[in-house]
Amino acid sequence: MQQSLRHLDRAFINFLKAEPNIRSFIRSMESKSATYASNAFQWDGENLTLAKMQEPLNIRWSFGEKNAFGKRDKYIFKGNPTTITISKDCANRYFVSFQVLEEIESWPTVEQAVGMDLGLKDAVILSTGKKYGNPRMVRKKICANRQVLSVK
Length: 152
What we know:
Blueprint: H1 2-17, E1 32-37, E2 41-43, E3 48-50, E4 80-88, E5 94-101, E6 116-118, E7 122-126, E8 131-133, H2 135-151
């Protein structure tokens, strides 16, 4: 309910800002979505249960590392989900997106600084003198050498 009121408020604000002659039509074949705030779902680390549902949703993860059998292992994120969005595309497939609040540890400070120069022959040249080649230029050289060798 609260999320619906937020969407309605945003719709009125956008409507009042819009120019009077511009019309927008809602297409029935486009994707549809519903967003749930943190008080409208329960996440216990593996199962997602929406408000007014008795059983958790059957989620098939679309990412994660493949195990020895070729199946993807479940990827459980670290942190607490604050918002989820369930969307449906025109092929009647459902997707769940999690917005997660996660604490990120800071990196140690470094006393030295390194300058970078981007070029054509070498992609990156550091102030320390180290060069990283441009793969496009290397590919051109390989192609040119192939052409020369294929004639002979």
